[in-house]
Amino acid sequence: MGFSDYNILYLLFLIPLLLFLYILRLRRKVQIVSSNILWDQSIEDIKANTLFQKLRRNLLLPLQVLILTLIILALARPFIIGSLSSPRNLIVILDASASMKATDVKESRFDSAKSSIMKMIDEIDRGVKMTIIRSGNSPTVISDQISDKPILKDIISKQNPSDTSANLVSAIKLAESLAKDAAKSEIIILSDGAGEIQKQSIDVDIPVRFAKIGKEDTNNVGITDLGVVENSFNSNQVFAVIRNFSYTKSQSITLELYHDKDLIDAKKLNLPKNGRRSVIFDNVMFNEGVIKVTIDAKDDLSVDNSAYYILHKPKPFHILLVGESNIFLEKAIETSLSGIKIDKENSEDYIAANNYDLVIFDGFVPKTESNTNAIYLNPNVDLPFAKLLSTKENPTVMKWDRSHPLMRFVDLSELRLDYVKDFKMPAWMIPLAESEITLIWYGENKGHGILVLPFDVRPNSKRNFALIPAFPVFISNALDFMIGMKAYGTNVKAGEPIHFAVSNEKIDQQLIVKKPDGSEVSARLENGMFSFADTNIMGIYQVVGKGIDEKFSVSFLNESESDIKPYNKIMVSGQEIQSSGLSWTANREFWTTLVLIAIVLLVFEWWVYHRRVLV
User: Fold this and answer.
1) Euclidean distance between CA atoms 280 and 255, whole angstroms
2) Helix or strand or coil: residue 423?
3) Which residues on neighbouring strands pair with residue 265, listed in sequence order?
4) CA 175, CA 197: separation in Å to the nearest integer?
5) For the whole model, what pTM was predicted?
6) Side-chain half-sphere of 253: how many Cα atoms within 13 Å?
7) pLDDT tens digits, one per residue of 61-119
8) Which of 135, 333, 604, 612 shows the greatest Cβ crowding within 10 Å of its Cβ?
9) Distance of alpha carbon 243 from its chain centroid, rounded?
């Protein structure tokens, strides 16, 4: 038993005060009389007022003491701990994203969530079935309707967070589908609430509880972007973006640049509250090895304090330009990658060829889809995979996806266009920049990248894309992503699949992938292409096979996960679900019972007083 307000118990000092009032003597005047026969009653009164004498035969006193005690205890709101009825089928979603590695709570947020689930397992009734979904880059069911508590605890104890984001939206939809066939179900989410779940409301017909993990006052500085641009002089420029995610204090850090394990440069940075800095390291004179950038921040999340980039010797790329001459485009291509061979053809002379790394169609659309990477600029008719709908004049840029590799360091705020064409695109095409309609599209089909810019990039009085700094950066990103990274395939973000061609090796074979944590997994080389999706840990991966020894890097670079400030609510079925506890025990207060007893005793005390009942 306990009390909600222990301070009220200090009022118990009123009990001795009540006793003191009872033992107060009456002050009487002394008077000499001839006989005391007529004063027997007065003598009895005198005896009653001697110390403790009047307490001996008075029933009112214990009644009043008991009534006063009950009232004081009721005001303190006493309770006993009791168990609540738990659902028969629990579906627990455990956020295993990188932000759950934050150490703003004891050990880490993920360990705190695991401890909460362990406690929940102890408190639920026997026979309750628990399904546990681990929500990483994709949701995974790690226990399916298990009621054995030791087995559930063993499953939870083996879980670890990843370096990816959490797809809580998909996890909740999966939980709902699993709960449809089970009666009396409830979904419980243990998360810091970050990510896509804050951007949309999920319609769920099953009760949902949300338990926030993490403290409000967080401290984190992270590397949110890293890129390497090779220029024509065989030296590289390394770009890095660092952000202070603290909303209460500024940060001073050192950004260090390494080639393999050697420190080659360092810069001191002062970051204001919620501020960011873009940093450029010039003349990085290496074309092989591992580039690594680190910050020395002492913060709550360490996974975003490093990022990696694999360099390879540049290989010659073969690009075909089809259409009218475009000097702005050609110059941007030449300065983006060294060793590029550019062929040019008029649209009338174009014959489909597969020996190019990239084909750029400028104002021309072939009858059939190209069997290689392709960029379509200002297509004037239906595309082989999309229908032309209309033309929008003087569009205004509203937003663009800064997180996509094609849009890194691209600022479209100065972009002016005189028109843009609207296409009905297939589902595999995604928008990268939008106005009232989409300005830039990208997708992958049949293993090839396809980029569509449905407007003319040549400048005139009403359009300026080729004249603003964003243009050469965008072209460099496109070449690097569509042929550079596709050829080398060396650098991806955590959770992204990786594909690259293994040079001089066309025989299918089994490969071993050595992950940064020391574990090994198998993969296959098919038609000279290596594909791998298990990139949930940041660091350097090694691919080993017969005649093959390649490396690729996985970096965190996830701004939404680096912003580790937890959320207190999520939106479910159009309503806010506030964070709440997970306990299946509750404080059952019984002060109303004490009040009722006190009222009964008070009535009885009134009756005793008027009847002059003595004991």
Assistant:
1) 11
2) strand
3) 257
4) 15
5) 0.64
6) 26
7) 788 888 888 888 888 888 776 554 557 788 999 999 999 999 999 889 999 999 999 98
8) 135
9) 17
Give CA–CA dist 305/539, Å, rounded.
12
What ranges in 105-145 are assigned the alpha helix state H? 109-123
Work out the angle at residue 243's Cα, subtended by the Cα atoms of residues 433 and 217, and round it to the nearest 5 degrees: 115
Distance CA 377, CA 318 (A): 18
User: What are the tokens at 135?
Assistant: 């929500």
Tokens of 188: 């419980």
What pLDDT, in 10s, does the model give residues 1-44?
777 778 888 888 888 887 777 666 545 566 676 766 666 666 66
Place of tokens 């992958």: 444
CA terminus-to-terminus distance, the chain = 34
Paired strand residues for 383: 386
Query: Sign of the C-alpha dihedral, residues 111, 301, 531, 291?
Result: negative
How do strand 78-83 and strand 585-589 relate by DSSP bridges?
antiparallel
Give 404's Cβ-side CA count (13 Å radius). 20
Handedness of CA 62, 63, 69, 70 (dihedral sign): positive
CA atoms within 13 A on the CB side of 219: 11
Could you tell me whether strands 276-284 and 236-244 are parallel, antiparallel, or unpaired per DSSP bridges? Answer: antiparallel
Q: Which token pair is 397?
A: 């840029």
Q: Which helix (H) or strand (E) holds 240?
A: strand 236-244
Alpha-helical runs (H) found in 79-227: 109-123, 149-157, 168-179
| Residue 360, beta-bridge partner list | 321, 375
